[in-house]
Amino acid sequence: MADTIGLLLAVWIAIGITHRDPRSLQALGSYLAVGLIPVAVRMVVNARMGLYQRMWAHASVPDLAQVLWAVGVGSLVAVPAVLLALLATGTTAPALLIPTFWFIELLVALAVMGGDRFLVRAMNDVATARAVGDRSGRVPALLFGAGREGALIARSALQSRSVKVLPVGFLDSDPERRGSTIAGLEVYGGLGHLADAVRRTGARMLLITMSNAPGTAVREVMAAAHAAGLEVRRVPAVHELLDSSLDASRIRKIRVEDLLTREQVTVHAPGVESIIRDQVVMVTGAGGSIGSELARQIFALGPRKLILVDRAESPLYMIERELDLRALAGQAETELSVHLANVVSRPAMTRLIEADKPAVIFHAAACKHVPMMEEHPSESMQVNVLGTKAVLDAAVAAGVERFVLVSTDKAVEPSSVMGATKRLAEWLVSEAAVRTGKSYVAVRFGNVLGSAGSVLPVFERQLERGDPLTVTHPGMTRYFMTIQEACWLILDSAAIGKQGDLFVLDMGDPVRIVDMAQDLIRLSGRDPDDVPIVFTGLRPGEKLSEKLYYDAETVGTTEVPKIRRVFDPQPPPDVRSVVNQLVTMAGGDREAELRNALFAAVAVRETPERARTPVEDQASTPAAVWLN
Asked: Model-level pTM?
């Protein structure tokens, strides 16, 4: 309505000035028919360019550029439309035929369309200032990060009384922003100005408003905030924003993974969307930590059908329910196909894969708990090796073009049954790739933060009970990354993978487990000196530190900076027959014999020269050598 009245006013003023008689209603009436054309054209252009779908209370410079663009396009369309109307009707309207009319009409239209929208923004800022003065029980908070995300969070929090955080000012590491005003709030400077900002605002909390903040920045901000006696919160990390929604209701506490993560990649490698969108995709182990996150990210990319397989009914139901709710909310039109099945069952895997013929299979099903698999080597052999072989064979028979094995750094020089079985799984994938020429690949990485079997939940339960934290050894280190980042890079690996590729994810630097325990103690609000840490010693199958590569493996780069390609020696040519021989021992009654044979099987002597040879030209060590 405001645009309609304003644009009519723009035409009237332009006609009046051009006609030199702005009060002449008779003159206006003679131009009325064609004078409405610019109004109608601008309304259509504005609608097409989304000017009636924006939240102008949050207007910013990009929004002003959109208004300018809409006004310009409107003029370019309106001028020929008016000329055609005049020619078609034989009407004479000299005032509408001269450049002066269009110049004046453009200026007034710009003033009207920009003015009413930024008036809404100004009124919102006034309301913001009043909200800052009315604290009404909310926690006053300084926001660290005065960019677009910070402005969005500030306005969202100030407009919603249900949010318990009240923004009172900004901090930002960019010195050029100091003294400016964002969302009606002053930017006081960087962390060096924290004490002054707290004194002037009465803040009791510091809120990190950068979704892609690396762990080093989060740690620095948290240390400064704690020294100033402030609580610390943050907006969700970028990998938690698959639905792209960000507002003040999603503020959360700092987690240990926030202190360890690097800046997240937010753009997939070329080809990821083409192998997922409108395709049939299968995920095994879909109820697990990695499998369920793969399912979420794949679902967000819009496959035609997503097949989820797991033998654990409760977690499988939970991920099915979560994705169903997303579909009900209109976030996707993907068909879900959920199957309670064991990957070890060859008939089940053959039936499932043959029926739907997925374009790509992500094989995440595995037994991963190192000490438990030491006690149950037959189960590890059945699931990690025979299960991989069953899914692989079904994929080959159905002509599946892409297969991705989720592997582990414990497959490198394995000291555990779990690691040895995953090494055999890597070989099976490589052998199938060589045999078929298809893009069957393995992706190797270290521990993921927050998984069901990780150390963090154990520490958290111990802290809740007031027990000492148990760490195996003061020198133990592990590679860590978030589940979300790992799965993002697994999808990238699927897109760039070629026949038999073995990828290793860039895990950054290894982290001392005792340092992680102390970080968790600090996040709980306690002093690390007040919470005892007990060292329990290494458990069966564990090592003090893990490696990402064999010494014989040559490492190269890929088009994705955080993914490395490993030139792995070709697996033994009869790896499948050796696997079959090992499986005969995996009945639960020959555990010691199976363990010895398993470690002998993966203890192949590889040389760097052999690793650098192209796969098709490599010689192989006979299986008899490594079973003796």
From this structure: 0.72
